[in-house]
Amino acid sequence: MTTPPEAEAARPELEEAARKAESRRGFLIGLPAWLYLTIFFALPLVIVLVYSFATRSSTGRTQLTDWNLESYRRLFDPFVFEVFRRSLILAITTTLICLLVSYPFAYYIATRRPRVRNILLVLVMVPFWSNFLVRTYAWKVLLGSDGPISQLSEAFGGEPIRLLFTNTAVLIGLVYGFLPFMVLPLYAALERMDWSLVEAARDLYATGWRAFRKVTWPLSRPGVIAGSILVFVPALGAYVTPAILGGARTTLVGDYIVDQFLAARNQPFGSALSMGIMIVLLGATILYFRSGARNV
Amino acid sequence: MSAAVELSGVSKSFGDVHAVVDLDLTIADGEFFSLLGPSGCGKTTTLRMIAGFEFPTSGSLKIHGAEVGLLPPNRRPVNTVFQSYALFPHMTVEENVAFGLRMKRVDGAELGERVRRALDMVQLGHRADAAPRQLSGGQQQRVALARALVNEPEVLLLDEPLGALDLKLRQAMQVELKDLQERVGITFVYVTHDQEEALTMSDRIGVMSDGRLLQVGEPQQIYEHPASRFVADFIGEINLVPATVVDGTSVRLTGGAVVRAGTGASAGEEVTMAVRPERLELFDVDEQIPDSLNRLEGTVVRRMYFGDVYYYTIDTPAGAFEVKEENRPGVELYEAGERAIVAWDAAATTVVSS
């Protein structure tokens, strides 16, 4: 006697097999990402970690024999500490300015008609169409002592404005570069806002400002957190912008690390700096998430 | 006593769209008033103008005698229960209810006491610390009510508040809402497209269509004596039969039959005779029918069983009639194809212009 297929489907072995097939499919789908992350992220990270405990030989080679904490001790040198402090302040300032500029803009986009919204979003992304390096060099021209900003100042009888090779120039460059990373998550958060909640707040005697403080702002906070992390993280380790727009006197973590690997040929210390920056970022991110999650 | 809400000549346009046109409406203090109409008829825009979310393009809007047409929502003595409840998801039930009082800087013992009383009123005192999303639809609805009523508004505005609930819960909430309104004595302005809701709860109903207020009256009046074809058709089920006026007390139907129907229209005018299916009765063709009733002979096209009623379609020379007969013990059933007489009392008819 043959069993009809319906009855077979109900057998536990088949169910088990189907579940296994399903989990196998899931594994296969995830495999490329797993491989990529393992080879290009996890493995290099382990190498950096290992190197950070190694010793630099007098010729600039890295000796993988003499393990020590010397590189980590150097992280607390006053100079290194100052580099970290300066970079942190710059990254925080960049994040705050981005937030301040992006929030009203994202709010504006999110409250437009869908068609206008899409046009504005495309405009936000237009800068990505040209090379970041080229755009940063463009800022070098704009901010230079014979650049248009300075010329404008002189035309009105003012002093020539020297912005290039200052922290301000780096700040301008960073804000410019990372602005879209703040606008987009903020837009996403505001776009799915239920505006009847704001109306409800107004209905319950809140002024426009208090409705924003009590309803719009807390409900858009996931976007604020996401945007801040997306700006803060790359801003802290930024290399290209400070290298082009910053001065030699204002070393930041990013170019300091590059210096260790390329100029000073001190791979262990460069690795330790990299680990340091990761720890700072991880700590800052966790703190930020915590403070945000409590109030959302 | 001044009217709770008084709209005179209120219009609202969005560009070329005239959402509300020259609306005159007076809602009495303590009244349960419903604005009824299909979607897009302007009822919600009217409510939003009273709430302050929209400003009238022209006209005057008064609440208890004070002109409020151009005041922002936070400066009007009204509160709204929103269609989707609009509970603040990042606050607890208690914080939601306390919001309005906090904005008015009520605090300390008075705040706690009023919030507690409002939550008790809607039987949700035990869920004060819950987040809105942890509540069922009906409970969220009641939080929205408490959040509005705790402020003791002069007028409570309700925008299809029962729309998201399932049928049983909706019916229970209708009773609850009406009770609540009678207890607190606050004027309710209720917007709905559900005629049953409007009929069961309201003291008076205003029927709207295309931005205009077509008829205002008590539920019985609106249902029994619709003033226009639209109102007749929109509310409940109704047979609309083309007719010609013979004189003030009778009309001629298609096919020549003259039936009694009171009308103010002049002789010869083309009108529509409206009569509700439940006001029609079926008789055998040879049955003795009281002379006071209008009658039309026809053929049964179909019979449908609805549990509580039988629904007949009867083809007559004057057109097809829908007849609703209660499913009582011993009720006589007619089969498709049988001849039968449709009869009704002249008082059950309304004549409206075509």
Supply the key terms.
heterodimer, A: 296 residues, mainly alpha, MetI-like fold, 2 domains, two-stranded antiparallel ribbon, 13 helices, 2 strands, 1% strand, flat, B: 354 residues, alpha+beta, Rossmann fold, OB fold (Dihydrolipoamide Acetyltransferase, E2P), six-stranded mixed sheet, five-stranded antiparallel sheet, elongated
End-to-end distance of chain A: 63 Å
- Give the proportion of residues in helices of chain A: over 70%
CATH fold call of the largest domain in chain A: MetI-like fold
Radius of gyration based on Cα positions of chain A: 26 Å
Shape-level CATH architecture of the largest domain in chain A: Orthogonal Bundle
Overall structural domain count of chain B:
2
Say what oligomer this is: heterodimer
Average pLDDT of chain A, rounded to a whole number, is 88
What is the name of the CATH topology of the largest domain in chain B?
Rossmann fold
The topology string of helices and strands of chain B comes to EEEHEEEHHHEHEHEEHHEEEEEEEEEE
Q: Number of helix segments of chain B?
A: 8
Which overall shape of chain A is indicated by the principal axes computed on the Cα atoms?
flat
User: What share of residues of chain B is helical?
Assistant: 10-25%
What amount of the residues of chain A lies in strands?
under 5%
What would CATH call the homologous superfamily of the largest domain in chain A?
A: MetI-like
